[in-house]
Amino acid sequence: MVSTADAGRRADRAGAAASAVAPVDRAVVYGVRSQGRLEATSLHALRALKEVADTIVLVHPGRMTPESRSALDGLVDRIEETDGDDFTSESYAAAVDEVRRMRAGVTEIVLTGDSWFGPVADLAPLMGRMSGSSADVWDLLPPAAPREAFPGEGFPAVGDRPWFFVAVRRSFFDSDAWRRWWAEPIAPGERERRLVTDARRAGVRHARAFETERLHPDDPGLFAPEDLLELGVPFVDRAVFTSYPPFLDRFAVIGSEIAEMMGERRYPLGTLRSSLASCVPPKALNAVLGLLSVLPDEAVDPDGGASASIAVVVHVSDIDEIAEILRRLQFLPPGASVFVTTTEGVTAARLEQLLEAWSGTNEHTYELRVTPQSPGRDMADFFVGCRDVIQSDAYDLVIKLHMRRAPWKTMNRLRYFRRYQLDNLLSSPGYVRNVLSLFDREPELGIVFPPMIHIGYATMGRGWALLHPHAERLAKRLGIRVPLDTVSPLAPYGGMWIARPAAFRVMMQRRWTFADYDWKYQRRFGHLAHLQERLISAAAGQAGFSSRTVMNFAHTEIGHTALEYKVDQMFSTTRGWPVEQIGMLHRAGYTGYGGTVALVRMFMRINHPRVADAFRPFYHLALRGHRVFSAGRRVASRLRSERGEKEREASS
Questions:
Q1: Which residues contact 66 (CB under 8 A, 6 or more apart)?
Q2: What share of the chain is helix, strand, coil (3-state, %, to 5)?
Q3: Domain map (residue ranges) of the chain
Q4: Is the Cα dihedral 596, 602, 604, 607 positive or negative?
Q5: Could you tell me which of 19, 54, 466, 489 has the fewest CB atoms within 10 Å of its CB?
């Protein structure tokens, strides 16, 4: 029995032979979905399309930057800039007319754009096979039906978007039927779906390159991407990697496995990850692509990171624990430059003695810096006190660590926090080699850090810590266009990571000062130290770098089993799939402590949303007052703790 994939390959070979005797004068109109979103994946696609097209016209919403124009040199023959910030299907009609003026002999025009990633195979056999068809219009897949949207979770409905892959022949685009069809008023996003049915009704002949009805009747591009790749379809629908993760989870669309299949077909996965990092919320992308590396303590590559120039920035306020960090720094390859910061002269004197003795046991160098006392603590010392280090081109990687007192935490929580951070970054010499090897293998990897800590901490579900509005304002000020996660960001909670300095360049556009971290500036930046920590992945994504989380085996065993049990308990009182359970809980809103007021409000939001909306301003006003009061109490408590810490240090 001959498989469908084998039959497709044989047909492609036959098509390639047919194309040799029946050449097609082909043009491609490539649409970009929104202003300023010309990605590396689009450049890769255009290079491949240029091999099978005589002319390429790129349709871009709004003005294109000089950098993007420069990147397109030699790839496209014309750039059409349209009105508005987003793509509209109507721009295809104008582009087709422009192609006909440019090339009087054009016989086929392909309407496509950045709705897919690819190609994952040579396009010539496919185009050759379809050139032998007598159809007036042909496409690859059935147009996708309207897809479920999750606007409250940061995944709004997609309106009009570039078409997947539709080829129209001269017999159609020269006809009155073509002109009448574009003159009809059709809702945005509906033209691609209606083209084939309306064309057939007008007597236009249609063909489809692949038969996919047995895979999925409505939307094989999203729900059967692996089968399409096996069938020989050279593109992967963009929605496979950009949809709401719990929605993909429901249908077992595993992005990491699909990406692996693309890689096996020689698609550059680094280009894919870099492009997605610039347009998908970081935590969502972490889930969709499975960007968690569980690494062993034995080195898979003993030479991993051996050639990297490494800087380590360590903030120290708890000198009693510095020995543990110094021990772990010896796991690094020789020649690291260690910068230790502290804010107090007596501590600096003791550190100098410890560092002098430690430097005699390894090949690392050290520099001790005394910085001003600041509420920003380790983050201020990193972005201000060591700005010259992270701005320097002398280092391939920068490791950020800290050891500070937290008197408001119990000993168990503090002990586990330190173990969790240090074990998952610097567990052993072999583990460190494995982490550094990630940067060797993935040039687009910008930063690695441990996943969100959830044992001993109630961070999950509230990772923004009320800083989301501040984060949006700061992101806009810094030019970060990467969408922010709505519930919790992908962030190095705890402020420890390993990264390329280039991943911070967007964050360093503003020349931060220690004064920016003072309490009086919270109205402008929020709590700046926490804000920078939570924006670091988005800043890396804006620069085209992906983020990855890393764990060792021991903490994976501890963390996964605990998390599985907690999630099981959390979902025990709600029905449906997780995507439905999550949606219902989000519609209900904040539960507070489950009191009468909160339960009534939740009931109204689910069953009478319009009434709830009318009363929402009054509720938010009361809630804001409560938060201000609670924040004041926390600040006062922290100030008392810091004052007590200073008094203890002075007395010692």
A1: none
A2: 50, 15, 35
A3: 4-234, 294-562, 589-651
A4: negative
A5: 466
Question: Cα separation of 76 and 405, whole Å?
Answer: 58
Using CA atoms in the order 43, 48, 51, 57, what is the torsion angle rounded to 10 degrees? Answer: -40
Residue 245: count other Cβ atoms within 10 Å of its Cβ: 22
Residue 282 burial (C-beta neighbours within 10 Å; 0-12, 13-18, 19+): buried
- Closest to 522 in 3D by CA, of 474, 581, 487, 460: 474
Beta strands in 10-113, from DSSP E residues, in sequence order: 26-31, 55-61, 78-82, 108-113
Short-list 330, 358, 398, CA closest to 368: 358
Which residue matches tokens 């870099």? 274
Per-residue pLDDT tens over the stretch 334-346: 999 999 999 888 8
- Assigned architecture for domain 4-234: Alpha-Beta Complex (3.90)
Q: Spelled out in words, what is the top-level CATH class assigned to the domain 294-562?
A: alpha beta
Report whether pLDDT(7) > 70.
Answer: no
**Residue written as token pair 């047909």:** 11
Angle (deg, nearest 10), helices 345-359 and 322-329: 30
Containing 149, the helix (H) or strand (E) segment is: none
Distance CA 63, CA 597 (A): 51
Q: What is the pLDDT of residues 245-265, one digit of tens each?
A: 999 999 999 999 999 999 999
Is pLDDT above 80 for 525? no
pTM value is: 0.88
Give phi and psi for 369, each to the nearest 5: -125, 130
Rounded to an integer, what distance in angstroms lies between the CA atom of residue 362 and that of residue 250?
52
Phi, psi of 363 (to 5 degrees): -105, 15
